[in-house]
Amino acid sequence: MGYIAEENIDVFERFLSGEMNKEELASFEARIAYDSDFKQQLETYRSLEKDLKNHFREELKKKLIKVDRNYDESGSNNRDWKMRNTLVSLSLVAVIIIGLLIVPSFFDSNGTEKIVQKNWAYDEGLPVLMSRKSTYDDAMNNFKQGRWEKTINSLDSLTTDTAYFYKALSYYNLSEHKNALSNFEKINSSSEYFADAQFRTALLYLIIDKSKGIKLLKEIANSKSSEAEKAKMVIEEINAE
Amino acid sequence: MFFLSFSLFLTVKYDSRKKYSLFLKYIGLYFKVLLLIEEDFTFLCSELKKKEEHKILSQIRKGDESPIFEIYKIFRDEFLMYAKTNYNSTSEQSKDAFQEAVIDFHQNVISGKLTELSSSLKTYLFQIGKHKLLNILQKERRITYHDSIHLIKGEKATDFMKEENRIYTQEQINNAINKLPEDCQEVLKLYYFKEFDMNSIARDMNYKNANTAKSKKSVCMKRLVAELNKITSMIFL
Asked: From the CB of residue A61, how many other CB atoms can be counted at a distance below 10 Å?
């Protein structure tokens, strides 16, 4: 029949665990040979041991299916939360980086502008003598009175280094730094205004392009320019910032 | 933590350019840490990964099932994507295959077939999972194609015949086990599924010694067989 008789369980266990001595084993094997029902019971017992394993395997699988279901329900929420958390963190970091790239340039420029303003020497303009008429009289009158646009208009038709110099100063006072720069850069290197213009050019570059401004200051500091000492002082002030 | 350290950083009196470059390095490090902490297992380097895998195998050998649930959660989604991409399987088929793979991994560790991973755990699981999936897909194709059992050739027919010849069906065995007292179920599980020796069973179950564990196991098997015979005899009444 194959149904396991309970009284045979002990002997099956001894056989399967290899605990039988020679005599027992010989007797057991002889019985298997002649007793087909006994043999079938043994096969059923072997099969039962495998099926026991399958039962517990199925049990473990049911647990995994439950884990799977729970994971889908709460796991996706956790994953959403994690993803949101990651996105928020990354966004915050991005904002901070962008902020740091922009904001400090304002702080820096305020600090740098103060340095530029401090070192931007006041020029009172050319003397306007009553005794003789000069080409620059109108421009200088306007310059001394702080009428910068009129100064520029008065000097516009002129292509001298003097005109460029005072036009540049006027543009600086109007905060038109690029126009100021373009006029300073037109001044000839042999001009009496050149050293001053070169120094002021470097100061302007500190506002527009700080690294270039520092580079120019260093060149002036290392040269024989009359503004070399001033350039060194400005460099020190920037480093201390 | 990040904002706290960032605030501290701002108070440091550095030259602004130096502060800039330091901060950019800091941001880079933060990104790396942020990505790392998103993983479930913090495999920071291969040495640490190996230690973690070694720990998992050790835990499983001691009879702890919890690592396999964690492993399942970690790698499941990736396997589903892999299965869908390569075999166009459904989510159910892929899940089934991966569950079988994880259980096989568990069994291989228990039985001593797997003592050390030569590849990564993920590779090992995916290899088994792939074969399980192919078997599932093949089986389902055969069942859906042939609507009459007589037309089914090969393994399915053989399995069917084996099922017909069984004295006790799996369902009967499952029911009989569930009727056993809990300690019997536990002893049988420790012996047949977790493959503990008698000394380990005695330790786990707080029995006096290995012989006590052996007697207990024998008693439980007799009870199981008695229950099975009762179930099967009722069929014929």
From this structure: 15
Query: Model pTM?
Result: 0.55
CA-to-CA distance for B95 and B72, rounded, in angstroms?
10
Enumerate chain B positions whose Cβ falls within 8 A of a Cβ in A: 2, 6, 15-16, 20, 23, 27, 30-31, 34, 38, 65, 68-69, 72-73, 76, 95, 99-100, 102-103, 106-107, 166-168, 170, 173-174, 177, 188-189, 192-193, 218, 221-222, 224-226, 228-229, 232
ipTM of the complex: 0.72
Give first-to-last CA distance, chain B, whole Å. Answer: 74
Residue B188, C-beta contacts closer than 8 angstroms, at least 6 positions apart: A52, A56, B177, B180, B217, B220, B221, B224
Closest CA to B203 of B213, B214, B193: B213
Exposed / middle / buried, residue A96 (Cβ in 10 Å: 0-12, 13-18, 19+): middle
Site from A4, A37, A83, A236 to mutate, B interface, most B CB atoms within 10 angstroms: A4
**pLDDT tens for each residue of A92-115:** 777 777 766 656 555 555 688 888
What residue type is A231 in one-letter code?
A
Q: For the segment A49-95, what is each residue's pLDDT rounded down to a tens digit?
A: 999 999 999 999 999 999 999 988 875 555 666 666 777 777 777 77
- Which residue ranges of chain B lie beneath pLDDT 70? 1-20, 23, 34-49, 142-165, 235-237
